[in-house]
Specification:
The protein is α/β, with parallel strands linked by helices and about 350 residues long. Helices cover about 40% and strands about 15% of the residues. It folds into 3 domains: about 60 residues, 434 Repressor (Amino-terminal Domain), CATH 1.10.260; about 130 residues, 3-Layer(aba) Sandwich (Rossmann fold); about 130 residues, Response regulator (Rossmann fold, 3-Layer(aba) Sandwich). Helix 1 packs across helix 3. It comes from Glycomyces harbinensis.
């Protein structure tokens, strides 16, 4: 009696055997660029082991292409705006967007993603990975490269090397815009309520703040600079420290709208009026800015557009396209509302 024929292997099985995404296995099979040589070797071995032969008949039915997105946390307005852009971009591109978060707290603690999670995402067949404000280790970046998993990072929490495509706003220019606005109103004692010291966007906004002061001939006072997290609680504690100074600021530039909300809350608790006693500028232009009282002057960064561009960039990388730049910056703009006036 003849032995039953072995079922034809599928490309999905090849990808699973190699521990890579189906998109990566397809690129190796078709000789497309954008895959590390070691990954090509592993995929070719899987093809040989499974005796995979591309079908000349109807293509196998597969699930829609997907992009996996990892946030540090989704419990803030910044994340909601970026997620809306990612989902909208995925819909326009015809791909599913799978979302996960590293931390359920409002203020994430920059937990690394972890090699196991990266391997799981690659094995799931995701076309690419988008990381939003979460920290990436060098080992994790190398793993994505070796697994052939295209990686795009929005507002990186730590410095990245040239292997990684990142996306953000013109944070330095936004810091200059916010600080120059306060200087033009006549303020000279301007505090900075910042974000995490390791955060790339927070550092860029701080550098913009310093540049605007120096360009106006105002000496940068280290006592007026505070770091923290992108949260209202951090804004409160930063404002408390700044307003307790012997010579307190007449205005504060907050590194995010959430931080600015905390600054306003702290000032009110002291019986101060915003903006009569203290002008406040935020950064992001989320709902927080529009519904705080008074409405917040802030630097608008195109958060939804950042999400859309990230989704498109991940698919371009999956298709083997080489990006024009490894760091894409979208323009910011200053939105003047009711939280800033000249000093008394």
């Amino acid at each position: 009696m003849s032995k039953p024929a072995r079922p034809r292997a599928t490309l999905t099985e090849v990808a699973e055997r190699a521990g890579v995404s189906k998109a990566t296995a397809s690129k190796v099979l078709n000789g497309r660029p954008g895959v590390a040589e070691e990954t090509r070797r592993v995929v070719r071995e899987a093809i040989a082991d499974l005796e995979y032969v591309p079908s000349t008949g109807p293509r196998e039915t597969t699930a829609p292409q997907s992009i996996h997105v990892v946030f540090d946390t989704i419990l803030n307005m910044y994340a909601v705006y970026v997620l809306d852009g990612l989902i909208s971009g995925g819909r326009e591109l015809g791909v599913e967007v799978v979302v996960s978060a590293l931390d359920s707290a409002v203020t994430a603690q920059n937990h690394p993603i972890g090699l196991d999670r990266i391997k799981e995402i690659a094995a799931s067949g995701a076309a690419g990975l988008v990381v939003v404000t979460a920290e990436l280790t060098g080992e994790e970046m190398t793993a994505c490269e070796q697994l052939g998993l295209p990686l795009v990072v929005i507002d990186p929490a730590n410095p990245l090397d040239e292997r990684v495509t990142s996306l953000g706003a013109t944070n330095w220019a936004g810091g200059v815009q916010a600080t120059r606005h306060l200087i033009d109103l006549g303020h000279r004692r301007i505090g900075f309520a910042g974000g995490p010291e390791r955060s790339v966007p927070a550092r860029e906004r701080l550098h913009g703040y310093r540049e605007a002061l120096e360009a106006a001939g105002i000496e940068v006072d280290p006592a007026l600079v505070r770091s923290g997290t992108f949260s209202p609680g951090s804004g409160e504690s930063s404002a408390e420290a700044l307003l307790d100074l012997k010579d307190p600021p007449t205005a504060i530039f907050a590194a995010s709208d959430s931080v600015a909300v905390g600054v306003v809350r702290s000032a009110r608790r002291r019986g101060m009026l915003v903006p009569a006693d203290l002008s406040v500028v935020g950064f992001d232009d989320t709902y927080n800015a529009m519904w705080v009282e008074p409405p917040l002057t802030t630097v608008r960064q195109p958060l939804r557009q950042m999400g859309k561009v990230a989704a498109r960039t991940a698919l371009d990388l999956a298709a083997g396209k080489v990006p024009d730049s490894h760091h894409v910056q979208l323009a910011t703009s200053l939105i003047v509302r009711g939280s800033t006036v000249g000093p008394r």
